[in-house]
């Protein structure tokens, strides 16, 4: 009987070892629309140092890009077909297009082979 009781407690201890009491990571759904969302990333420029880029999606086709190291926002357009996004932004007379994906609260954009990941605020 003593061995059975010891064996039962050992199984219980083993079971509790593999059971998590902590909260699992919250799963964030990929949004159906980007309207009203704001996404940020901190980048590092060799000459100017770190700065923050913020994308604010104002309508179903328009966005505003702001930089913490620049007073002038850039206006742009985008096409979002969940989870894919294409952004065209014009700043300083130069038009730039990014393509990427949205996964939960992360947006990964690629331009000229370089990827950046923004986080939804």
In words, what does this structure look like?
By secondary structure, this protein is mostly beta strands. The protein has a domain at 38-120: Lipocalin (Beta Barrel), CATH 2.40.128. 13% of the residues lie in helices and 55% in strands. The protein is built from 1 helix and 8 strands; from the N terminus they run αββββββββ. Strands 1-2-3-4-5-6-7-8 form an 8-stranded antiparallel beta barrel. A hairpin with a 4-residue loop joins β2 (49-57) and β3. The termini are far apart. The model is unreliable at 1-18 (pLDDT under 50).
Helix content percent band? 10-25%
Order of helices and strands: HEEEEEEEE
Give the low-pLDDT segments.
1-18
Number of helical segments with 4 or more residues? 1
């Amino acid at each position: 009987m003593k061995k059975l009781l010891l064996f039962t407690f050992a199984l219980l201890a083993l079971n509790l070892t593999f059971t998590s009491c902590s909260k699992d990571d919250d799963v964030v759904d990929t949004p159906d629309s980007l309207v009203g969302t704001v996404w940020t990333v901190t980048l590092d420029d060799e000459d100017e140092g770190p700065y923050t880029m913020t994308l604010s999606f104002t309508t179903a086709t328009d966005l505003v890009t702001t930089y913490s190291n620049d007073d002038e926002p850039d206006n742009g357009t985008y096409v979002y077909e969940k989870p894919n996004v294409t952004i065209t932004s014009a700043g300083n007379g130069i038009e730039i297009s990014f393509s990427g994906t949205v996964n939960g609260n992360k947006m990964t954009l690629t331009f000229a082979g370089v990827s950046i990941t923004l986080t939804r605020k």
